[in-house]
Write a structure and sequence with these properties.
Keywords: Hydrolase. Helices cover about 40% and strands about 15% of the residues. By secondary structure, it is α/β, with parallel strands linked by helices. The chain has a single domain (about 5-210), classed as Rossmann fold (3-Layer(aba) Sandwich). The protein has a six-stranded parallel β-sheet, with helices on both faces. Helix 1 (about 25-35) crosses helix 8 (about 200-215) and helix 3 runs parallel beside helix 4 (about 100-105). Bound molecules: adenosine-5'-triphosphate (ATP) and magnesium ion (MG). The site of adenosine-5'-triphosphate has 20 residues, from helix 1 and helix 7.
């Protein structure tokens, strides 16, 4: 952890050059879960599409601060932005670019969401390479894969872990299932955490617990 960050404990970055894998969904939910636990959270929307910002604009009352910063200078400016927060979550853009490099340099842990399909496993390799490149200079940087949109009781859902082994990055034990409630709740700026009895909510809680344990 860097000294000049003062009070900020952890910077989580959701990154994958592949589009639509769940970077925004998991960023918002991790931020919301941490905020629910009483932490002061900043969500940095580093995707020029601005999906996290749009989500937060749909809300009447903010759950946490969301700022847009799709700039490759993010890693140089982040220390000036995060002082008032306990945790920072960065929602990354699709594509491998200077911006993705900057996010990796800013992060303490890079979480790569992956859907259980061979195409997704192949596509994640570029993002993994980028992280491994950064780890040469920043050995304390953590990286994990997170299986998202897993469909229960399917062969591909079971086999994806074997396929992921070739990326040589640890895979989180707790997967996130394919649950339509993620899309439904997003439509009005809420999250699955607002639901009382929800498997999705439990999965997010376990996801965040596991990340906190790693760190
Ligand atoms: N576990 C899930 N179950 C069901 N739907 C999901 C799940 N995770 C994400 N989605 C849906 O999949 C779509 C893509 O998700 P999301 O926008 O989070 O991906 P992304 O990686 O941020 O995409 P982009 O690369 O375009 O920024 C959204 O419609 C979202 O609601
Ligand atoms: Mg997104």
């Amino acid at each position: 952890m860097r000294m000049h960050r003062n009070t900020t404990d952890m910077i989580y970055a959701y990154l994958n050059q592949k589009g639509g894998v769940g970077k925004t969904t998991l960023s918002i939910h991790t931020a919301a879960e941490l905020a629910k636990r009483g932490r002061r959270v900043l969500l940095i929307d580093a995707d020029p599409q601005g999906s996290s910002l749009t989500w937060s604009n749909c809300r009447e009352k903010a759950l946490f601060t969301v700022v847009g910063m799709p700039k490759a200078t993010l890693h140089k400016e982040i220390d000036l932005m995060v002082g008032d927060y306990d945790d920072v979550v960065i929602d990354g853009p699709p594509r491998v670019t200077e911006l993705a490099r900057s996010i990796i340099l800013a992060a303490d842990i890079v979480i790569i969401p992956i859907q259980p399909s061979p195409m997704d496993v192949w596509a994640a390799a570029d993002t993994v390479d980028l992280v491994k490149e950064a780890q040469i200079y920043k050995p304390e940087l953590r990286c994990v894969l997170a299986i998202n949109r897993k469909i229960a009781n399917t062969a591909i859902g079971r086999d994806v872990r074997t396929a992921l082994a070739e990326l040589e990055v640890p895979v989180l034990k707790h997967d996130i299932g394919q649950r339509v409630t993620f899309a439904e709740t997003a439509a009005n700026g809420s999250t699955v955490l607002d639901q009382r009895r929800s498997k999705a909510r439990k999965e997010i809680e376990k996801h965040v617990n596991e990340l906190r344990r790693i760190l």
